[in-house]
Amino acid sequence: MILHDKMKASLPEWRERMRVLAKEHGEVVVDQVTVGQVIGGMRDIKSLLTDVSYVDPAEGIRFRGMSIPEVLKALPKGRGGKMPLVGGLYYLLMIGDVPTKEQALEVEAEWARRADVPDHIYKMIKAMPKDTHPMILLTQAVVALGHESAFSRQYHAGMKKDVYWEPALEDSLDLTAKLPVIAAFIYRYKYLGKQGKPRYNSKQDYGLNFARMIGVEDRKGYADLARLYFVLHSDHESGNVSAHTTHLVGSALSDIFYAFAAGLSGLAGPLHGLANQECLGWLLDVHKKFNGVPSRDELYKFAWATLNGGKVIPGYGHAVLRVPDPRYMAQMEFAKARFPQDDLIRIADLVFEVVPQVLKEQGKAKNPAPNVDAISGTLQYYYGVREFDYYTVLFGIGRALGVTANYVWARALGWPIERPKSVTTKMLEEAVKEQLQPA
Ligand code: NMX
Ligand code: MLT
User: Fold this and answer.
1) What are phi and psi of 271, to 5 degrees?
2) What is the pLDDT of residue 439?
3) CA-CA to 172 of 20 to 30 Å: which in 33, 197, 310, 365?
4) Cβ–Cβ under 8 Å, residues 57 and 80
5) Please, which residues have CB within 8 angstroms of residue 168's CB and are 6 or more apart in sequence?
6) What is the pLDDT of residue 262?
7) Distance from CA of residue 33 to its chain's centroid?
8) Kind and range of the H or E element at 377?
9) 370: Cβ–Cβ under 8 A, 6 or more apart, which residues?
10) Catalytic center residues
11) Is the Cβ atom of 275 under 6 angstroms away from ligand 1?
12) Residue nearest to atom 6 of ligand 2 (CA)
């Protein structure tokens, strides 16, 4: 299998780099920690290691060193589409190089071979109450896939540490192959009342399969959106809730199914993955109130009314970024190239002109610019995927790509169980007293 062989070839060099850093330079200081950071959600503390992606506050995400425009340009494209093959992105995240089209298609073929979902997963979803949130269904399905985990089976059979990464990769390929099928089943079952299992077609790529399996009308158009969406949502370095949780749970040597189910539980939170549905809701409220696209002045007042009502403006602000999110820009470019006259796109564009000014006037948000969620639901809505509570499931399919790449590398490089140290409030107060006392 191509990802296995490529990783195996580069492992000795990576292990040596890790050994030199840990054994010869383990005492070198990387960062210091303030009281504000301990209380404030560990913000910005440099304490996680990943080579899969990096978020530069002034520039946005880079996947394996490449910006989003570079990734979208360089990766091989799906047949008849303008957006990259998701298999090519997975190769890039996992191996670190841009694949050829043949290499990207090898990953796609590997997914097609593994896309069959065991019957008990479908039965389990059907046994749940009809109004169960789709993120609950997805998370349950992922943890239940762990029944087949190669990692857990081989671990309990006494596997050696230096080969942990091999079944970790097997499991990750199984998970990422089955995820769009399970997600499509949830969509069809929950919203369209269909009982049948979705069928993955080995002649089609990941994006087109997903478009066909959920049954959108404009398959070709939506396939390109799905490819773009999964690429953009795949990774955002390691500190965000879903990536960090997956990594943390994986560090206990739980298999990827346990680890990613935990990550998905974090993604389901309103400050993380759930925000995209709130953004679309806000845009639709604007549309309804003004019966179409408002004037700048009307929008300005509407934004202030949201803030004065004690609410945040969804889709704006970011914990790390200090510029418009390039993931927002890529989606806006996609929409403007295909449906520039759509009312919601025109409103979203106007929001981009007006809201940063409003947030600056309010003076609270550190970053008044849009994030990825400000537009993603709007594009789904355009193609007819209008069930808001499903949007986080889409995010989950994308996020699996990055966090599984991290998981496999963490096992390959033998990273230990994660275990930061805690302090008490009294200790913080004493540290303050000590440092404020004149010497
Ligand atoms: N609208 C109103 N107020 C905001 C916004 C916003 N969009 N963004 C930040 N603030 C406020 C924030 O609530 C905080 O207020 P207070 O001091 O009263 O608690 C203050 O500005 C400082 O927050 P920041 O340090 O700028 O932001 P933080 O890192 O804490 O949180 C978010 C980041 C993304 C959670 C925050 O910007 C937010 O709630 N945005 C709206 C919801 C959203 O778009 N979530 C999607 C996140 C996805 N993503 O990050 O890509
Ligand atoms: C993400 O993609 O995970 C979000 O932008 C949140 C983050 O990076 O903190």
Assistant:
1) -85, -10
2) 67
3) 197
4) no
5) 151, 255, 256, 407, 408, 411, 412
6) 98
7) 27
8) helix 373-382
9) 315, 316, 324, 325, 328, 351, 352, 355
10) 272, 318, 373
11) yes
12) 240
**What pLDDT score does 43 carry?**
94
Write down the pTM of the prediction. 0.96
C-beta separation of 360 from 192 below 8 A: no
Phi/psi of residue 53, nearest 5 degrees: -155, 160
Residue 315, classed as helix, strand or coil, is coil
Q: What string of DSSP letters covers 263-307?
A: HHHHHTSTTTTTHHHHHHHHHHHHHHHHTSSPPHHHHHHHHHHHH
Find the 312 Cα to ligand 1 centroid distance in Å: 7
Tell me what pLDDT residue 191 has: 97
Return the residue whose CA atom lies nearest to atom 8 of ligand 2: 240
What one-character DSSP code corresponds to residue 84?
B
Cβ atoms within 10 Å of 407's Cβ, excluding its own: 30
3-state helix, strand, coil in the chain (%, to 5): 65, 5, 35
CA distance 348 to 380: 14
Q: How far apart are the first and last CA of the chain?
A: 63
Q: Is 213 exposed, middle or buried (0-12, 13-18, 19+ CB in 10 A)?
A: buried
How many helices (H) and strands (E) are present in the chain, helices listed first?
Answer: 20, 3
What averages of pLDDT result for each successive group of 10 residues across the chain (439 residues)? 97 98 98 97 96 96 98 94 97 98 98 98 97 97 98 98 98 98 98 96 98 97 98 98 98 98 96 87 97 98 97 94 97 98 97 98 97 95 96 97 98 98 98 88
Indicate which atom in ligand 2 lies nearest the CA of residue 372: 5
Distance CA 384, CA 387 (A): 9
The tokens describing 141, both together, are: 């399905």
How many CA atoms, within 13 angstroms, populate the side-chain half-sphere of residue 61?
A: 29
For residue 399, the CA-to-ligand 1 centroid distance in Å is: 21
Distances (CA, A) of 353 to 24, 141, 206: 51, 41, 35
Residue count of the chain, please give it. 439
Query: Which residue intervals of 146-255 are DSSP H helices?
Result: 150-156, 165-192, 206-214, 219-232, 241-251
Q: From the CA of 34, how far away is ligand 1's center (Å)?
A: 21
What's at 176, amino acid-wise?
T
> Residue 387 carries which side chain, given as an amino acid letter?
E
